[in-house]
Amino acid sequence: MCTHLGVSRAAYYKWLNSKPNDRKVEDEKILDKIKEIAESNNSLFGTMKMYYTLRNKYKFKCGHNRVYRIMCINDIQSTYRRTSRYTYIKSTPEETAKNLLKRDFNANKPNEKWCTDVTEIKVPATGEKLYISPVIDLYDRYPVGFAVSDRNDTGLTNKTLEMAHTAYPEANPVYHSDRGFQYTRKVFKSKLEEYGMKQSMSRVSRCIDNGPCEGFQGIFKDILFILYPSIQSKREMIKAIYGTLNYYINEYPQKRYNGKPCGQIRQEALQTNAPVSYPIKQANRYIRFWEEIDNKKRQLLQQTM
Q1: Where are the beta strands (DSSP E) in 224-278?
Q2: Domain spanning 113-270: which CATH class is it, in words?
Q3: Are 159 and 149 within 8 A, CB to CB?
Q4: Which residues, 6+ apart, have CB-to-CB distance to 273 below 8 Å?
Q5: In this protein, which residues make up the domain named Integrase catalytic (predicted)?
Q6: Are strands 174-177 and 198-201 parallel, antiparallel or unpaired?
Q7: pLDDT digit string (tens) for 236-259?
Q8: Helices 211-227, 234-250: inter-axial angle, 10-degree rounding
Q9: What is the value of pTM for the model shown?
């Protein structure tokens, strides 16, 4: 057999009598845990999320390159693929506010800056619609308020605000939103003033001004349909929504926070008077994109003058 395969007898017996080294044994343990995690969340995680979970939750001492290699060799891939979404309801605003946030999404501690929005979710089997409205703290991306409704109206956004205020009654954050009809009502502005919150709004047609909340909603829906791929009714969808919320808070690792989920970051921050700072890296490509848009608008304006 050795002659046929072109292998020396010495090499064959060395291989036959060899014992797996420590690294190979550790690789097998890592692989078993990766398979367990992938099975539990329908292969939601790619390399980095898997690495953060192995390191922070299960205390494995391994690098992300090693995790990448093991996943590639064993053909373990993430099912998570982002898709673009855009919805808009035209309205005539009663009240508007200045953009106090000005795309400064950094916060030094919890309850300094909150942002909110409304997004639509459809039941795949029936096409029925539900709407979710989160209030996200920009310090840790933690949903301080969260409501679900089958109607996209002021009742939904008011409920979310009430939940956030009830959870943190002493908080006086900047409360940022887009210019949706729910947020431009006089009664909504009065409620913010009553709670000591400062209203801030995105500029017209600038969804990027509310980027963190837009991003949260996109990630949330992607996680939901990966964890719960066979939703058949509104009742099942509502259950899946709150299951996903719990997963996002307690299990979903985030790169900005060294792979920790937002619930852990919030718990750590509320236990100290000097919370850890997590600065956001400047997204120069977005800045250049909007600068180009503004330049084109100025050029068109000059041509019409």
Answers
A1: none
A2: alpha beta
A3: yes
A4: none
A5: 106-269
A6: parallel
A7: 999 999 999 999 999 999 999 999
A8: 110
A9: 0.78
